[in-house]
């Protein structure tokens, strides 16, 4: 009996030792990723009376991208950490959470990274591998991931390009591409590289989008191609420091070019601990800081509360992302910035309805007027909408460049094309037509009988409610008895004309109610926008522009 037990124990011990040896061999051949326990410090220096600083810990991962894409970094079969999704695992990464937010660029981070490099004129074949520094999801929850850094290397192991992927709380994304050795500043003490570049993306509600970033960083200690298990390899601790400077007043030497102003904000991410990503180490890190991956959004909200209510900083409204499509013509439309936009807010159900109504109208009007109309979005993954006239009948071509689907809301809400042009183009700067005169010709009702003493339709009466008297009574802005879209209701043929009119009224009422609700909510919370920039006062801003046009100084 004792011999049998002893033999069984010996066999079990041999099997255990064999398993551990195989695991060790597998670990030896496995690419090494790293766990980074960071100390993050934010400091606001201006205005002086609102100065504020805070420090908090975070946990992130430094991952060799090629190995990540092959699932070579998965832990415990992907249950503890896995690539490809959020659910059914403790922590993970999904490709759709990074870089471009459309399926045309591929289902892998690597292919999307290559497309971004190619779009900026780089040869993606020169990309050997990249370190990706980011925060994974936890229990299916994916935070906003404010900053993901890609350290891109050439085959010889040389750091080539650093890509900063920035996310904001509105679900938008932007990349800044920094090439090593190109446009660099003198290297500050304690860092390997530094760049200064214009700011093009809205991040903080307490700053506008103008100004400059100065980014200083230390590179990882070795390229990802040398990340195989080597106990003697130093654990990388990449540091990222970001300084934000508002624009200074233009100098007399360069009156049209703003210079860099004083330091306003500073943020630094500094790893205090770096260790190889293994199942025991990762589980221990999560157990030591169980809420580290869940607190990013709550921290942002808490600090925003302090800045707004205690430090008395007013809120800047969110501007639409700058255009990034190649078809954008900055000579006609707004400046394109650095074309770094990669993620936009999705189109809502009301905007989809308004788009259908406008596009159905244009399909008819292009034929009626002989004017070809092309709607060109600033979002690169969204194709342009083209409405050709009959072949041989095309006389002119109207191009309308727009930043967001709000163009369809504005056209739907405004009582006439002239009102839409005043509000959407001159005041809020959501769209720009290649020819304002042609825009008015296409979007105005085709029948002159709509003007005069005819009674306004129910829809037009709703549209006039938020418009100030100074705008409604302007002789330069004629108000037709019926909206142009009301006269072209064949686009949604599945709905009878009466049902379509009722649908339009319901959508109009919802839009106006949402605007009032937004104003009520901010008033109830005693929240404050920068004076004059309140979202619900768009028509007041348009009224000022109209008055300036009437009485130019």
UniProtKB/TrEMBL annotation:
Keywords of the record: Signal
Phylogenetic placement of the source organism: Eukaryota, Fungi, Dikarya, Basidiomycota, Agaricomycotina
Region (Disordered), start-end ranges: 220-258
Annotated source species: Gloeophyllum trabeum (strain ATCC 11539 / FP-39264 / Madison 617)
Short name of one Pfam family: DUF1365
Superkingdom of the organism of origin: Eukaryota
Signal peptide as annotated in the record: 1-25
The protein's name: DUF1365-domain-containing protein
């Amino acid at each position: 009996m004792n011999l049998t037990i002893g033999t069984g124990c010996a066999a079990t011990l041999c099997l255990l030792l064999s398993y551990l040896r195989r695991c060790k061999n597998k670990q030896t051949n496995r690419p090494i990723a790293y766990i980074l326990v960071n100390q993050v410090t934010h400091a606001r220096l201006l205005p002086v009376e609102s100065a504020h600083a805070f420090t908090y810990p975070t946990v992130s991962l430094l991952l060799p991208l090629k190995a990540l894409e092959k699932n070579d970094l998965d832990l415990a079969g992907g249950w503890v950490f896995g690539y490809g999704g959020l659910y059914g695992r403790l922590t993970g990464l999904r490709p759709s959470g990074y870089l471009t937010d459309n399926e045309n660029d591929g289902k892998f981070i690597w292919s999307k990274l290559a497309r971004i490099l190619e779009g900026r004129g780089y040869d993606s074949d020169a990309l050997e591998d990249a370190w990706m520094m980011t925060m994974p999801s936890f229990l299916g929850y994916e935070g906003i991931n404010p900053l993901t850094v890609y350290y891109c290397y050439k085959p010889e192991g040389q750091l080539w390009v650093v890509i900063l992927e920035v996310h904001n709380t509105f679900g938008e994304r932007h990349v800044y591409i920094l090439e090593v050795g190109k446009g660099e500043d003198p290297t500050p003490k304690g860092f390997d590289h530094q760049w200064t570049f214009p700011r093009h993306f809205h991040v903080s509600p307490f700053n506008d989008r103008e100004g400059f970033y100065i980014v200083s960083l230390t590179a990882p200690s070795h390229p990802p191609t040398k990340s195989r298990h080597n106990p003697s390899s130093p654990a990388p601790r990449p540091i990222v420091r970001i300084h934000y400077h508002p624009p200074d007043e233009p100098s007399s030497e360069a009156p049209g070019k703003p210079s860099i102003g004083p330091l306003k904000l500073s943020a630094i991410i500094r790893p205090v601990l770096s260790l190889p990503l293994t199942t025991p180490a990762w589980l221990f890190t999560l157990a030591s800081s169980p809420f580290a991956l869940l607190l990013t959004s709550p921290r942002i909200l808490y600090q925003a509360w302090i800045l707004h209510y205690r430090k008395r900083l007013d809120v800047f409204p969110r501007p639409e992302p700058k255009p990034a499509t190649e078809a954008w013509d900055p000579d006609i439309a707004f400046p394109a910035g650095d074309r770094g936009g990669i993620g936009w807010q999705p189109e809502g159900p009301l905007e989809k309805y308004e788009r259908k109504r406008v596009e159905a109208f244009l399909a008819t009007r292009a034929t009626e007027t002989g004017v070809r109309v092309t709607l060109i979005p600033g979002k690169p993954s969204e194709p342009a909408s083209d409405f050709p006239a009959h072949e041989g009948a095309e006389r002119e071509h109207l191009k309308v460049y727009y930043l967001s689907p709000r163009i369809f809301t504005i056209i739907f809400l405004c009582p006439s094309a002239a009102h839409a042009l005043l509000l959407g183009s001159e005041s809020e700067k959501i769209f720009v037509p290649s020819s304002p005169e042609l825009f008015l010709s296409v979007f105005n009702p085709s029948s002159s009988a709509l003007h005069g003493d005819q009674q306004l339709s129910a829809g037009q009466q709703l549209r006039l409610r938020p418009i100030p008297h100074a705008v409604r009574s302007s002789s330069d802005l004629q108000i037709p008895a019926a909206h142009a879209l009301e006269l072209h209701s064949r686009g949604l043929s599945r709905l009878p004309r009466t049902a379509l009119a009722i649908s339009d009224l319901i959508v109009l009422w919802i839009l106006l109610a949402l605007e009032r609700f937004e104003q009520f909510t901010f008033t109830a919370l005693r929240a404050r926008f920068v004076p004059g920039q309140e979202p619900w006062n768009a028509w007041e801003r348009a009224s000022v522009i109209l008055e300036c046009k009437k009485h130019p100084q």
